[in-house]
């Protein structure tokens, strides 16, 4: 019913001038109601029935409304502080829902309940990504948006949820990177929160596992000849994009240095993948360019935070990286 009503409202806003229209103020009001309803789903009362499925449906409706227009802001300058509190509560609730694993292959779920949690998590991630993307798209220095972002990225509940999301990376969860990118792009506090969550260590863990599996595959498929049938892991595109926005963000020098070192180790694990991408260029041009961008940003970041030359850095001493 919620999604159907949302579609009706949006369709009416696209009709001819003599028909009933939903003006921008009305659309913003619909978003406010949806976020308020999402916040109300976060009941912690003992014995209360779970509202998570309802929260997921409302998150889908919020995504639909937020992607319908880019000319208005859901957080206005004169928005009451109690409404901002509701928005923050809804954001924290969606983060909690989002931190369950989501798999592309349904067979990876142990049971129906896990599969349902995966669907709920995917819906919550969609709502959060749309919300953050909406705020990022508004090229403004609104103090209210700044206040809201500073608030949510310092909440302990969101910190824990982000840490749980990062820990899903080695499990080959394909749908995390977009949400985490939107966090980084939205606000410097979001980038710092993610940097401290250990995200690059988790990406490195996945890269190491993938490289080990690749070596096993090549050893059982006549080595180099078997490489012709290999493709990049589906998550690599998202992981590279996430690393690139982190390396480009305004982070304290010690966080940037740590991320740069981890990223260099990640590139080392993917050295064979990178070599194949470069040799087959311009096939897979998009991911190849992202790989090159990651190399460049990592080198530039290390130069930024290192007073001396790079002679003692991984990019200089590691033979696999030098070949790239």
Q: Can you put this structure into words, describing what you see?
A:
- The chain is mostly helical and 324 residues long.
- It is 67% helix and 0% strand.
- The chain contains 16 helices and no strands.
- The chain has helices at residues 2-13, 24-40, 52-66, 81-98, 112-137, 143-152, 156-167, 177-186, 188-195, 199-220, 236-247, 253-269, 271-279, 285-305, 314-317, 319-323.
- Proportion of strand residues: under 5%
- The CA-CA distance between the termini, in Å, is 54 Å
Structure classification: mainly alpha
- Helical content class: 55-70%
Shape: globular
Residue-averaged pLDDT: 83
**CA gyration radius, whole angstroms:** 22 Å
Give unreliable regions as ranges: 16-21
Biggest pleated sheet: none
- Number of beta-strand segments: 0
Q: How many alpha or pi helices? A: 16
Helix/strand order = HHHHHHHHHHHHHHHH
What's the short story on this structure?
The chain has 16 helices and no strands. It is mainly alpha-helical and 324 residues long.
What's the arrangement of secondary structure elements?
Blueprint: H1 2-13, H2 24-40, H3 52-66, H4 81-98, H5 112-137, H6 143-152, H7 156-167, H8 177-186, H9 188-195, H10 199-220, H11 236-247, H12 253-269, H13 271-279, H14 285-305, H15 314-317, H16 319-323
Helix pairs in contact: 1-3, 2-3, 2-4, 3-5, 4-5, 4-7, 5-8, 8-9, 8-11, 10-12, 11-14, 12-14
List the main descriptive attributes of the protein structure presented here.
324 residues; mainly alpha; 16 helices
């Amino acid at each position: 019913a919620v999604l159907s009503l949302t579609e009706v409202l949006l369709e009416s806003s696209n009709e001819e001038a003599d028909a009933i229209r939903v003006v921008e103020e009305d659309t913003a009001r619909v978003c406010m109601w949806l976020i308020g309803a999402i916040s109300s789903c976060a009941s912690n009362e003992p014995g209360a029935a779970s509202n998570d499925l309802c929260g997921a449906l409302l998150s889908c409706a919020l995504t639909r409304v937020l992607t319908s227009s880019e000319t208005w802001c859901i957080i206005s300058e004169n928005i009451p502080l109690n409404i901002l509190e509701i928005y923050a509560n809804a954001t924290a609730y969606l983060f909690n829902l989002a931190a369950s694993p989501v798999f592309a292959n349904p067979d990876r779920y142990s049971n129906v309940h896990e599969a349902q949690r995966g669907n709920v998590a995917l819906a919550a991630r969609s709502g959060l990504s749309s919300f953050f993307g909406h705020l990022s798209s508004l090229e403004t220095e609104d103090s209210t948006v700044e206040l809201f972002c500073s608030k949510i990225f310092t909440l302990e509940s969101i910190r824990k949820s982000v840490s749980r999301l990062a820990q899903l990376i080695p499990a080959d969860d394909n749908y995390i990177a977009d949400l985490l990118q939107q966090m980084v792009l939205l606000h410097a506090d979001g980038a710092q929160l993610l940097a401290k969550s250990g995200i690059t260590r988790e990406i490195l863990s996945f890269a190491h596992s993938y490289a080990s599996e690749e070596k096993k595959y090549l050893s059982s498929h006549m080595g180099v000849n078997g490489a012709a049938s290999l493709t990049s892991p589906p998550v690599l595109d998202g992981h590279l994009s996430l690393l690139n926005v982190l390396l480009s963000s305004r982070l304290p020098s010690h966080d940037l240095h740590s991320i740069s070192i981890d990223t260099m180790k990640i590139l080392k694990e993917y050295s064979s993948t990178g070599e194949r991408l470069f040799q087959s260029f311009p096939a897979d041009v998009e991911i190849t360019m992202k790989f090159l961008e990651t190399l460049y940003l990592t080198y530039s970041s290390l130069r930024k935070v290192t007073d001396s030359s790079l002679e003692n850095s991984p990019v200089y001493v590691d033979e696999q990286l030098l070949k790239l």
